[in-house]
Amino acid sequence: MGRLSSLGAWVPHLVAASAELDDPVIVTSRVAGSAPTPDLSPLTMATEMAAALVRIHELDGSGLRPTPAEPLRGHAPIIKRAQREWDHLDMSDAVLIHSDFWCGNALWKGGRLTGVVDWSGARSGPRGVDLAWCRQDLVLLGSPSAAELFLEEYERLSGAAVDDIGTWDVQAAASAHDRVETWLPNYLGIGRVDMTAELLRERLDAWNAKL
């Protein structure tokens, strides 16, 4: 949490902690905002989340567990492709990554992003991990165009092109392949009652077919 402090009110700050194994306690400040409303445009989400991710990726990830550590395991075609393309990933320029950067881990108010939570998976790794994961979330919300806008905004604001984003998209798709239906409670939990397990599968498969 200390290394996140430069993000100010966007992130929780440590208030108190106890490392007692029998009764561990962590108390943090509360970050303002709530889940994105169902009528929030994915295009708005894309621009807000791109700006936030640029700031996050400016932080030093050294000393955190590196990710990804090894190729995904499995036999589905998209997983086999991810295995074949593993050596094409650019693992250089490691930054602090969130590792689960999707709209439900962002807090919102009036269409603006007010915070980012759930930092338990923070790691040191290539920025493509977060970028591909967020792009996939925007696709699952039904907006491939928002996924493209997200990347464009990130590259514009950071001043750097992410040349291997297609390869990272494949890694994210492979990770989602066997479990995308299990994410339905997460989307229902942020008020997306329009979502179904079948719809998540349909949107993921359509996205994968274009990769």
From TrEMBL:
InterPro entries: Aminoglycoside_PTrfase, Kinase-like_dom_sf. Residues 3-155 form the Aminoglycoside phosphotransferase domain. Signal peptide: none annotated. It comes from the Bacteria. Gene3D superfamilies: 3.90.1200.10. It holds the Pfam family APH. This is Aminoglycoside phosphotransferase domain-containing protein.
